[in-house]
Please model this.
Amino acid sequence: MVVVDEHFLINFPDNIPLDGAAPLLLCAGIVVYSPMKYFGLSKPGMHLGVVGLGGLGHVAVKFAKAFGLKVTVISTSLSKKQEAIEHLGADDFLATIGTLDGIIDTVSVVHHLMPLIGLLKNHGKLVMVGAPEKLWSYQFSHCLWSPASNVEVQDRVRELPVEIGLM
Model:
């Protein structure tokens, strides 16, 4: 028997298997969902860029489309264009200057940020969730997403299944 404080328990929906719930709700899902909600990047009609089409990027595109956002996938790999548009529902593959309300950057290796910043509208948000081992030569560490508290993370994990229609 295990005794756990009820504040640390999460009710998983009955219609999702536990092996599928962990990545969606506790791993990649919450890593992209929480900053999208916190920074106001989940409002229908917004235009979101997603950098990188790996695990985090896939989830970011799927959530953004579920929220009713226009999604542009930004990648240096043209081979991912078909996957982004046909399989994940992205609206565009590359972006033009000053058109995005926000960007979720899921790339976990050092890469140039200035081209991404140029894609943002005034007051746009660049949220970095894929932190590389080595930071850039200029200090952008304050831009990395860090939740305000464990309580906030728990609240987000509880609201995620409801928001994406699993409960």
